[in-house]
């Protein structure tokens, strides 16, 4: 399956500050694709100069892994560590 990430950055008032899409290429599963979307959102936010980011998404497993302090040895562990 091929995937494309869509990222919208809004400020604290809800105004759009930037938007982009990233082709993710072939991904093995939806969890990996969602983790890559979060990584691209973090990179895009950093490139735009933002220091505080709130990432929203619906992949609960990825969100739990991002919030966890333990070392992630899963398939998406490397992506989680980059974020």
Shape: globular
Strand order of the largest sheet: 1-2
Major beta sheet, specifics?
2 strands, antiparallel
Mean residue pLDDT: 88
How many domains comprise the coordinates? Answer: 1
- The number of distinct helices, counting runs of at least 4 residues, comes to 3
Number of strands: 2
The proportion of residues forming helix, as a percent range, comes to 25-40%
Element order, helices and strands? Answer: EEHHH
Residue runs with pLDDT of under 50 for 5 or more positions: none
The span between the termini is: 23 Å
- Strand percentage, roughly? 15-25%
**What is the oligomer described by this structure?**
single chain
Rg of Cα set: 13 Å
Please explain how this structure is put together.
- This protein is an alpha+beta fold.
- The protein has one domain (2-81).
- It has three helices and two strands.
- The chain has helices at residues 30-47, 60-67, 77-82; strands at 2-10, 16-26.
- The chain has a two-stranded antiparallel sheet.
- A hairpin with a 5-residue loop joins strand 1 and strand 2.
- It is globular.
- The two termini are 23 Å apart.
- This is RNase H type-1 domain-containing protein.
- GO terms for molecular function: nucleic acid binding; RNA-DNA hybrid ribonuclease activity.
């Amino acid at each position: 399956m091929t995937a494309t990430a869509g990222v919208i950055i809004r400020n604290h008032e809800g105004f759009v500050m930037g938007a982009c899409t990233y082709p993710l290429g072939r991904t093995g599963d939806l969890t990996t694709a969602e983790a890559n979307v979060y990584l691209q959102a973090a990179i895009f936010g950093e490139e735009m100069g933002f220091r505080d980011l709130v990432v929203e998404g619906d992949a609960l497993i990825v969100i739990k892994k991002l919030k966890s302090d333990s070392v992630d040895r899963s398939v998406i562990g490397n992506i989680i560590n980059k974020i």
